[in-house]
Amino acid sequence: MYPFLRLTxxxxxxxxxxxxxxxxxxxxxxxxxxxxxxxxxxxDIDNFxxxxxxxxxxxxxxxxxxxxxxxxxxxxxxxxxxGLVVAGSTIxxxxxxxxxxKVLMKTRVCAIDDKWFYxxxxxxxxxxxxxxxxxxxAVTNFMTxxxxxxxxxxxxxxxxxxSLPPDEWVQVWIDADxxxxxxx
Length: 184
Known about the structure:
Layout: H1 4-24, E1 34-39, H2 53-71, H3 73-80, E2 82-93, E3 102-112, E4 117-125, E5 128-141, H4 150-156, H5 168-179
Antiparallel strand pairs: 1-3, 2-5, 3-4, 4-5
């Protein structure tokens, strides 16, 4: 089941942090890395006593939600009736996350093109990276589901003319994903 209680806590804590940072003039920028902390709980653990891979992807949703709120994008989403969508992802797992582990999640935009925001997310336990994800995401019109051009989203946030080309490893993934056939 989707962690709605944790989502509610995430929204409240992220919004509180955003308002505090706005007062102090330290709002997270679009190119900053945000950090979200949580503890692995019983609902996250599978029959092998580790965090389930599906749950990890779901918790990454909360990290992107936190990022959106802390950068001011969350406010624009509500004002303009926009939504967020994931259109592709790849993930590597390196270390198990166990029950009651204290987890630090890091989220950042690592590249932008005319249609997509590429997000990089990691989870850390005890100073070691447990998993690393790359996601192709977009801001969409909530009613139609159609993607909003990144230039329009950036402009609404005051980032006109921002360019964030992909690092080589991100570009390789983008190119490889274009070659992938989609079933018809």
